[in-house]
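Here is one chain, start to finish.
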Amino acid sequence: MENAVGLVMTGGGARGAYQAGVLKRVGELKRARTQGNPFPIIGGASAGAINGSAIATGCDDFALATKTLADVWAALEPSDIFHCGLLSQAHNSITWILDLSFGAILGGGNARSLLDATPLRHFLNKHLDCNRIQENIKRGYLYALAISATNYNSGKSYLFIQGKKGHPLWKRIRLVTVATKITVDHVCASSAIPMIFQPLKLQTPRGSAFFGDGCARLQQPLSPVIRLGAEKVFAIGVRCGNKESQEEATDERNPSLAQVLGVLLNVMFLDHLATDMEHLEHLNQLLNDGHINQLGIEGGQKIRPLETFIITPSVNLSDLAERHQKDLPSLIHYFVSGLGRDAASCADLMSYLLFTPKYTRDLIEIGYRDASGRIDEIEEFLYSSKEGDAENPLASVTGGNVPQAGSAAKRTGKLVRARG
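Its structure:
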């Protein structure tokens, strides 16, 4: 698959709206409108699994799919993701109190999560038609979609892959790859933030198990699309690219629980992509300098240089979340704020939970603006070719027989249906 571009999107809860903003701008490229989906291979985890599945189910009309995805994020309400009512929160709180206070006597293990994310499954069923994934693969719009989830029973990372017949499968010590038809349940499991949302039960070749957020054990988020054949990797991160260069703030007070949870989520969602990208760039340099033979260093596997492109927020999304915290329903805001001493200590945690229109619209706008500022670079990366078919990146995957994007008008279903 020469010059096939792999799209990588990792987690971030509500920060996933930033990814939608970037994709919306990419979908407005003239070549994207006329030539169709530039990403034949898509890998996603957590919120990235939601966005990746949306693109996979609508890639027969990539421009429309990206616009509609941004529209759905822009109209998102907290009640679409988790229960916000007094009864639900009271039940959750009592369960936690009983487990922590009397679990040894009454029998514990009943608390599942801080929030009840049951509405998310209904929301995705309404807006995501996963049956279209196989249709798009069959018609040549997509080669493969890979979604990561963490098996809480075994502790292993699972990669669920739906792709063209004969796509690669592999196995590692802590990784299992499964060829399967991807459903809303897989997407929900991949986006179940640990401790925040409850795990979901999925069927595997070895039986049923409970799964949670795909980022929990996904230490190499670029690996799935590379092993599926991508020779270029386009990644959308959700951490401010300038954050690491900023001077660290000092605070002599003990960290609140909200701060600790925020740091843990940052490690899980943000650090792995940046680290993996740095590792890949270093490996490319070693290959280009001749320090590593392209025949490889492991079992005769061929190692090839890969082109990479990463786009990240130009602003600190935690700072943005701090300004939007009161947009949450009062009960949820009261509940989450109780874990921290002030708005600043809750900012990182809130940046993942603020599924509110004002916050997600700001994120979409930031993503759209960031992509617009680099749109020439993005177009060059997506459509340049060393040799062969530079006009259509899907041609190398489908053997050159690629349906035109205009034929999408004849489709009978929808990938993502906008609210209302």
